[in-house]
Amino acid sequence: MTIRLYNTAQRKKVEFAPIDPENVRMYVCGPTVYDRAHLGNARPVIVFDTLFRLLRHVYGAEHVTYVRNFTDVDDKINATALARKEAGAEGSLEELVRERSDETIGWYHADMDALGALRPTKEPRATAFIGQMVAMIEALVEKGHAYAKEGHVLFRVRSYEKYGALSGRTVDDMIAGARVEVAPFKEDPLDFVLWKPSTDDLPGWDSPWGRGRPGWHIECSAMAAELLGESFDIHGGGNDLQFPHHENEIAQSACMGHGFANVWMHNEMLQVEGKKMSKSLGNFFTVRDLLEQGVPGEVIRFVMLSTHYRKPMDWTEKKRVEAEKVLARLYAAAAGVKPSDGVDVLIIDALSDDLNTHAALQRMQQLQKKPAELRAAMELLGFGSPEEVDWWRSDLTMTSGPTALGGESLSELMNLIHPYLDHWQSLRDQKRWAEADEFRQKLNEAGLVVQATPTGPQGERSSNFDPSKLEGLL
Ligand SMILES: Nc1ncnc2c1ncn2[C@@H]1O[C@H](COP(=O)(O)OP(=O)(O)OP(=O)(O)O)[C@@H](O)[C@H]1O
Ligand SMILES: [Zn+2]
């Protein structure tokens, strides 16, 4: 099985050959944990989760290490902590910073779990690796690739000849196009911060350059080296990080003599009216907003995977509605069956072609009539099991139309069972519990399993469903 991936650094699809098939290693830039993740932030999570699942399938779950960091050194986290302190919150600033990061990480986990994303093998927090960052910065200074000035340490960009190679731009192009900060402590405007001083009211760590904190870029270089080694297979993130973040990561690590990442992968942006969804533009909604509106995580995942990761995409209501209909049908078809042993080869082929998730989802739909295969495909693609996911039951009740469900059309089936559900509900409304339970038991014997949900009673046919046994019950 050959996996082909588009390597940004080579600007083409390449055959993927891991350094060590016993330990395939991937690093993805994770969130800065200052607030709820917006829907754009979920795109790399879902994309690289799909790649993680493919790699586990091909090389074995035990043979893949996926690291995604939490950036918990950040002025916005500090600002929240300071505001809480000023409002009278108990604890030191460090504790309040920690509290804010913990809180945000908790939200992040809950939200990304709801999207069916597996937790990465390791999720390091930057603050737990300050020692490694300081050591790397010291080595860079020693090698002449960095210099200390006024409590800052800066990376000397022009000391690294290949700077810009990832995005295929020259240093001079980049100066012209970027907002580079000019500062008195910089030799060159392009030089970027490896370490900066902290004032007393900010979190800080002791270092050879005084009390301070690391810059963002060095975090990833240091954590990747520590947890994955000096060379590893895949580095991922959104294409908004390509420059400067990833160029800077490469410069730091290459100047350490590290091989760093072989394949660079970048997801395109989730957009709103042609612009990147982002906190700074204010054109965002959070994953939690959608979940609270009742959009199931599986539906968000499906919509996300419908577009290839290297294409920009929008979230639209139309896509949501369509995805929900399709998925509800697939869940109904896969419910109660055991997954087949293998996963349909066309799904693996599609994913192996630079994550052609669009084709994989289409193939998944073609498997509707082969429930065991369908179920295995849904598992591989990260759609939770029909027994644990329950929204689709009520969804099917609401859907009407020509959808065929095991012979009868869905609307015929709904017409058939509705009077029974209504009768059960009216007994419950009147608190005639014993009768309600007895009635439910009879429905059960006819193969109609009913249960109460916040949106009303739901019925599901079991395999021994026999409509003739319903006759005479009302
Ligand atoms: N609109 C988007 N579409 C796809 N990926 C995005 C989008 N916005 C951010 N990302 C990705 O989300 C991940 C986390 O990024 P980060 O925590 O820096 O985001 P952020 O600073 O909260 O976002 P913003 O860019 O909105 O300020 C990164 O991999 C980044 O590339
Ligand atoms: Zn990074």
Care to describe what's here?
The chain is α/β, with parallel strands linked by helices and 474 residues long. It has 3 domains: 4-267, Rossmann fold (3-Layer(aba) Sandwich); 295-397, Up-down Bundle (Four Helix Bundle (Hemerythrin (Met), subunit A)); 410-470, no CATH class. It is 43% helix and 16% strand. The protein contains 16 helices and 17 strands. It has helices at 39-59, 75-86, 93-114, 130-142, 171-177, 216-228, 242-255, 287-292, 297-306, 317-334, 345-352, 357-366, 371-380, 391-398, 410-429, 433-445; strands spanning 4-7, 12-15, 24-28, 64-68, 146-149, 152-155, 192-197, 212-214, 231-238, 260-267, 270-272, 275-276, 313-314, 404-405, 408-409, 448-453, 456-461. Strands 4-3-9-10 form a 4-stranded parallel sheet, sandwiched between helices. β9 (231-238), α7 and β10 form a beta-alpha-beta unit. The longest helix has 22 residues, at 93-114. The relative contact order is 0.11. Residues 399-407 have low confidence and may be disordered. The structure holds adenosine-5'-triphosphate (ATP) and zinc ion (ZN). ATP binds at residue 279. Monomer. Its EC number is 6.1.1.16. This is Cysteine--tRNA ligase. Belongs to the class-I aminoacyl-tRNA synthetase family.
Which residues sit in consecutive blocks of at least 5 with pLDDT less than 50? 399-407
Q: What is the CA-atom radius of gyration, in angstroms?
A: 27 Å
Number of helices: 16
Strand order of the largest sheet: 4-3-9-10
**Broad CATH class of the largest domain:** Alpha Beta
What is the CATH architecture descriptor of the largest domain? 3-Layer(aba) Sandwich
Which class of secondary structure composition applies to the elements? alpha/beta
Tell me the count of domains: 3
Give the number of DSSP strands: 17
- Which fold does the CATH topology of the largest domain refer to? Rossmann fold
